[in-house]
Design goal:
Elements lengths: L7 H36 L7 E2 L14 E5 L3 H6 L3 E2 L9 E6 L4 E8 L10
Parallel strand pairs: 1-4
Antiparallel strand pairs: 2-5, 3-5, 4-5
Length: 122
Amino acid sequence: MAFLPTDLPSFAWGALVGAIAAFGTGFLQKVGEHVFAYIRDKINPKHPEPEQIDGHFVPVTFACSECAWVNEVKLYEYEQKGYSYYPHPKNNARCFRITSDGRHPIKEFLLVQPRAKKMANA
């Protein structure tokens, strides 16, 4: 009783089918991962990354008196007070700017006061 087949064509066909099956399962696994990621992102989309704006940005959605630039160190305090992030005009991402205290750069986010009303022309 021989371990390897004595018929070379059937052995070659078996090896070819085995290789195709191994490739196909790996390929289908990757396709499944991509389909799952696509569906997951459609059902529960990720928040856009914060967008940097220049220091001369003027809020148009909310009145300037209802907005505040807040150092990123104090964001948690303001979030607990009910402040929300000003939406970027293009993609609704959080807006931030880079300023300086004379020694170090500071990242500040534009926040909106609780119960602020959107402006009529926005």
